[in-house]
Amino acid sequence: MVGRRRFLKLILGLGSVGAGFGWLNRPPLVGPVMLGQASFESVAATATTRPPPASAPVSVSVQPIELLVIPKHAWGAAPIVGTFVEHEITRITIHHTASLLDDNTDAPGRMREHQAYHQQDLGWPDLAYHYIVDRNGHIYEGRPVWAVGDTSTNYDPAGHLLICCEGEFNSQLPSEPQLASTAGLIAWGSSKFGVGLDTVLGHRDLASTSCPGDAMYDRLDSLVTRSDRLLGDFGVTLTTLDDRSGLVVVAEIEAGRV
Ligand SMILES: [Zn+2]
Description:
globular
């Protein structure tokens, strides 16, 4: 449970930073690399004034990056239709929604539209993807990770952790907050499910589609490098917000404050 006041302070504090709301318990720094540098600079400053004995171990307290996820209830998800098929995650695939999103205040509404399209038009039980990242780096809960995703293209999504970014990346660029949260999700998924970062692919690597768009596809290698660095430096955890905190965040997103 994240208290409402603390939560508001947190998300408002991070809102203009560019790292997105996905990072919890972090000072307003642009990314994990800067955070790491800050930590070590701090250690170096201490060492200058009072160097430890050569034999003493230098202890640096590094806490994992914690990703926050907006729960389905908070973004207004409809109930599941039908049943899921269970699977075990063995790889990670990156997607885009293929819908231009310029105004991120529309992001929660887009989530509802995507889910309605997937359920009502395509006949799927739920949103196709497990996690969705909006333009400001907010992460939304999709289909349960234990359930196989869905696709209308010619590959089998069984075993895939499906991470989808809001946008149309053949004609717009992924934002920095979006890339930061996506790298965090990739790192978390790799660690959580014990799948190597070498399994990370774009949808177009597997099926006849332009997904995840040229601009995102071109950044996959750097995303994986970034994920690897996160795992090496900090580790990544993921927390799904309780519904009440999630509703507060969605209201802030729709008001354009985060
Ligand atoms: Zn896709």
